[in-house]
Specification:
This is Nickel pincer cofactor biosynthesis protein LarB. It is a single chain. The chain folds into two domains: 80 residues, no CATH class; 129 residues, Rossmann fold. The strands form three sheets. Strands 8-7-9-10-11 form a five-stranded parallel sheet. It is α/β, with parallel strands linked by helices. Helices cover 39% and strands 17% of the residues.
Length: 248
């Protein structure tokens, strides 16, 4: 990219000011510095964490990304903010269960073999599971969902285990005691990204019990992200899937 910009400047096809703008690594909005070069460094554009931001801030950041023709993923955005945001930017697709907004601004397509399995213990964990599934799909990866297959009725998991085994990587989500990743980890030969959820009664401690169970798993090949972090689990799975396909 750098050589191409310098060539255009040398040929008089681009001004020095335009070149400076093209080479800028971030855009300063005052309240935020939008990282436009993240896709070049990491293969994926910056993601907007919606919690704690106002709808106006999310709109302004999104507009900055739209000018650079970047795909936009906004996580943890509640319904009240969504209504305000979509009045200004109706191109956003809203996924209510996951509290997630997505806008496709590129024509990029991803050609990859295989899929990521999203394995979810219970219906109460669906918000986190859908955040994970939709994040992976936003990055162009095929996802297969296996929901309500927790250890309380483990035969439900076994009904799908052959298909889960064929995945490149699994994101396994569970609350309560958080045992599901250990069970899946003992049945498959690919990496497991475990996501504890805050679902459970008092001694669950808002997901701490599930987190500790997953960190202490006796099954090999399990990595653990933070409580309710469906996005983080999916992002790690996407990186693994890309490496398996030798693609960015």
């Amino acid at each position: 990219m750098l050589e191409e910009i310098l060539k255009q400047v040398a040929l008089g096809e681009m001004s020095a000011e335009e070149a400076k703008e093209q080479l800028a690594t971030f855009e300063n909005l005052g309240f935020a510095k939008v990282d436009h070069h993240r896709k070049k460094r990491q293969g994926s554009p910056e993601v907007i964490f919606g919690e704690g931001k106002t709808s106006t801030q999310i709109i302004d950041i999104s507009r900055a990304m739209i000018t650079k023709k970047e795909d936009i993923l906004v996580t943890r955005v509640n319904k009240e903010k969504v209504e305000e945001i979509r009045r200004e930017l109706p191109e956003f697709q809203y996924h209510e269960i996951a509290n997630l907004l997505f806008m496709k601004n590129t024509k990029d397509t991803v050609s990859s073999k295989g899929y990521i399995a999203i394995v979810c213990a219970g219906t109460s964990d669906l918000a986190v599971a859908e955040e994970a599934a939709l994040t992976a799909e936003a990055y162009g990866i095929e996802v297969r969902r296996f929901y309500d297959v927790g250890v309380a009725g483990i035969h439900r998991l076994f009904a799908h285990i052959d298909e889960i085994r064929q995945a490149t990587v699994s994101v396994v989500i569970a609350g309560m005691e958080g045992a599901l990743p250990s069970v899946v980890g003992g049945l498959v030969s690919h990496p497991i990204i475990a996501v504890p959820t805050s679902v459970g009664y008092g001694a669950n401690f808002q997901g701490l019990s599930a987190l500790l169970t997953m960190l202490n798993s006796c099954a090999s090949g399990i990595s653990v992200v933070n409580i309710d972090n469906g996005f983080g689990g999916a992002y790690n799975a996407v990186l693994i899937h890309r490496l398996a396909n030798n693609s960015k």
